Amino acid sequence: xxxxxxxxxxxxxxxxxxxxxxxxxxxxxxxxxxxxxxxxxxxxxxxxxxxxxxxxxxxxxxxxxxxxxxxxxxxxxxxxxxxxxxxxxxxxxxxxxxxxxxxxxxxxxxxxxxxxxxxxxxxxxxxxxxxxxxxxxxxxxxxxxxxxxxxxxxxxxxxxxxxxxxxxxxxxxxxxxxxxxxxxxxxxxxxxxxxxxxxxxxxxxxxxxxxxxxxxxxxxxxxxxxxxxxxxxxxxxxxxxxxxxxxxxxxxxxxxxxxxxxxxxxxxxxxxxxxxxxxxxxxxxxxxxxxxxxxxxxxxxxxxxxxxxxxxxxxxxxxxxxxxxxxxxxxxxxxxxxxxxxxxxxxxxxxxxxxxxxxxxxxxxxxxxxxxxxxxxxxxxxxxxxxxxxxxxxxxxxxxxxxxxxxxxxxxxxxxxxxxxxxxxxxxxxxxxxxxxxxxxxxxxxxxxxxxxxxxx
Length: 457
Hints:
Blueprint: E1 5-8, H1 12-27, E2 34-38, E3 58-59, H2 63-66, H3 74-83, H4 86-95, E4 100-103, E5 107-110, H5 115-128, E6 132-135, E7 139-145, E8 152-157, E9 161-165, E10 167-170, H6 185-192, E11 197-203, E12 207-209, H7 231-236, E13 240-250, E14 253-264, E15 269-270, H8 271-286, E16 292-296, H9 303-319, H10 328-337, H11 342-351, E17 356-357, E18 364-365, H12 367-375, E19 377-384, E20 392-397, E21 415-417, H13 431-455
Parallel strand pairs: 1-2, 1-10, 2-6, 10-21
Antiparallel strand pairs: 3-5, 4-5, 7-8, 8-9, 11-20, 12-19, 13-14, 13-16, 14-15, 16-19, 17-18
């Protein structure tokens, strides 16, 4: 089968590449054809699980603020961002009949809070505008037939199917959530054209504290999410904390610190601030470092002020007739109940037994030690959850070898690369999907424009 433009991968960037290409071709009533090849039974499987199924599909911050959340070469994304801004993505969806809303943190969602609505809308736009989408087509290999009239890409696919095109767009995604089809095929295709692949590793993932799982990590630090929880993990799993501070350090040096919400999950430490620190944490573990997390449960209170508050609360509890005759461990739980969510108390005490001094039956509380633990609950990190449940892949096709104004390869004319396949990754909050949308849309438009110029002489 021949198609003028073929897009390999029908995820976020692939669908926008099809829409971008058709947006150009429709204006000129062109007969050029666009085809998307998707190896899964349905397009954009990974988008279906974003935002816990609610699909936080973009973030409406202006470029100056948006770019602060890009973890790689920020200026590479700039032309694509301005070509298709977050407001343009919202407009595209709303014009197609999908109402959207912006929530806390400038994050945009469909009003329905259903990721499937975003996927169905984007697929609908692409097909209505003229793109053909073929599913259950797994690309096995790509070659190039060179001629004086230009290169033709030859694509071998599953089921002995073959395709050819004049413009090829790689939008196969990275390695995260392989069950959705992201198994790294695109890296192999890009390498075949001579592209350098920057080392890939999981990002926006769970960090696993020492002793959280009843399993040991692999040499590179990977600890599968399905590994059973230890008693500590069971005591903490499912607890969500708000307005706390989390600091990542290694070798006595602070790497980064974040304030906000975090979660203890079956994977480890996650949530918004956990994800924000995970990229640097994973890198440290993979490089042989021994990173540690410090959790401040009371970031709004200085340590000296907290210590005085604890002393006052302890005296009040001791004078209260309802608790005056309780043993010290029980009184300690009463005190902690005034300082943290009750479901956190057991895990906190398991992890910080030094708060209680002396032998059983003759304990005493060390308020100075409690102050230190509340302000700096230490979690040495021994591993991380890998691609099986990370949100995004860090690393990928080097952006040094891709033109930022067209997403075209500097090494192969007519080849465009976009989305998570590129060495672009961002913080959680809608930034990664916007990067995929913008780079895909620009790749599609650029491929269509170059073909029209070629055909028109």
